[in-house]
Amino acid sequence: AMLRLRLLTWDVKDTLLRLRQPVGQSYAAEARAQGLQVQPEALGRSFREVYGAQSRRFPNYGHGQGLSSRQWWLDVVKQSFRLSGVQDEAALTKLAEKLYRDYCSSNTWELLPGAAETLSRCRQLGFRMGVVSNFDGRLEAILSHCNLRHHFEFVLTSEAAGFAKPDGRIFEQALRLGGARPEQAAHIGDDYSRDYRAARAAGMHSFLLRAAGQAEGPEVPPEHVLPTLSHLLARIEK
């Protein structure tokens, strides 16, 4: 069956871009640069614990709770180091501000295989394109530094939308921005519930990027699964 698609919306992290190294390694390298020895594995564990707790306590970067996303992230970084044994408050502040900036840089991110070619081809085919991402305001800069921003008519973050995936209201905003009805749009992402299922619940088509060897999640029709981004074009060719 031909999909009569006008609009493609894209998740970013682990769909188009991924971190070049695990968070614990990046954080430990920055600490070393400031003369502090912290184990990357310990930092990674601390980060996951702190990030989880902060996300539950202040969902969507504290939107609606009086926090800025910058403050939200500075707190996460400082608490991750504190939990890993760093007590020096001046050092914590310096580390947090440096890492907050570093995560905007193209040195921190790399493109997933097929990302640039697939985005270019989709634009050549005349699709309207937008980003729908549970991310903070740095995403515009990250996409620009990684030379992807020009592919998209809009970049909708959960921070700007006020809603995070899987909340259907972020997809409704994206459809308005993209000037498309749900059945004319498809969302591409790597998370089963936040991307694949949430977009379908909003009436859109969706495709799940699921790399080979990834732990098999819930059943998804094979024609909705993308082993790599390069498989997308065969699924949607007009």
UniProtKB/TrEMBL annotation:
PANTHER family found in the cross-reference section = HALOACID DEHALOGENASE-LIKE HYDROLASE DOMAIN-CONTAINING PROTEIN 3 (PTHR46191:SF2), PTHR46191
User: Family per UniProt?
Assistant: Belongs to the HAD-like hydrolase superfamily.
The UniProt entry's GO CC annotations, sorted and at most eight, read: nucleus
Which InterPro entries does the record associate with it?
A: HAD-like_hydrolase_domain, HAD-like_sf, HAD-SF_hydro_IA, HAD-SF_hydro_IA_REG-2-like, HAD-SF_hydro_IA_REG-2-like_cap, HAD_sf
A UniProt-annotated Pfam family: Hydrolase
- The gene from which this protein is expressed is Hdhd3
Q: Which domain of life is it from?
A: Eukaryota
The name this protein carries in UniProt is: Haloacid dehalogenase-like hydrolase domain-containing protein 3
